[in-house]
Amino acid sequence: MTCWPALALATPLVLVAMLAGEAQAADAPRGAASCTGCHATSGSVKTAIPSLVDKSAPAIAGIMREYKSGARPATIMSRIARGLSDSEIDAIAEWIARGR
Ligand code: HEC
Predict the structure, then answer these.
(1) 77 CA to middle of ligand 1, Å?
(2) Which residue, by CA, sits nearest to atom 43 of ligand 1?
(3) How far apart are alpha carbons 26 and 64 in whole angstroms?
(4) How far apart are CA 42 and CA 75, in angstroms?
């Protein structure tokens, strides 16, 4: 019973946080939110996964199509690309190139 005041206070905060997350996700095309989980969107962040910061939308879309067809060897990206349609690849590439 002693938890109730804390719960009443926390619930609206959680809802606001969820709504803010939704708004951000709605901005991105389907499938795009995962990309930035692995790929850094800032040139100053160095990770083992290649950065997409210096790539144009046509370059990203072209590489994704090579991953999808298997023409370009990959550990992970071929599996991700196979789950995307051509129009989704174009929309995601545009979104990544635009968002920096
Ligand atoms: C689970 C982590 C992960 C996710 C999620 C991910 N990538 Fe990748 N990406 C990689 C890795 C690792 C490589 C290196 C190639 C490989 O081994 O698959 C790569 C390579 C790439 C490359 C080639 C970069 C270069 O310089 O050669 C592009 C373009 C790319 N990813 C785009 C995307 C896009 C677009 C998405 C979202 C749809 C995405 N990636 C999601 C891990 C990820």
Answers:
(1) 5
(2) 38
(3) 22
(4) 23
Tell me the per-residue pLDDT of 42-96, one tens digit each, with 9 for 90 and over: 788 888 999 998 899 999 999 999 999 999 999 999 999 999 999 999 999 999 9
Using CB distances shorter than 6 Å, the residues near ligand 1 are 31, 34-35, 37-39, 49-50, 52, 60, 63-64, 74-77, 80, 92, 96
Token duo for residue 44: 């100053």
Token pair in block for residue 50: 């290649």
Residue linked to tokens 């210096």: 54
Structure tokens belonging to residue 30: 């389907």
49: left (phi over 0), alpha (psi -120 to 50) or beta: beta
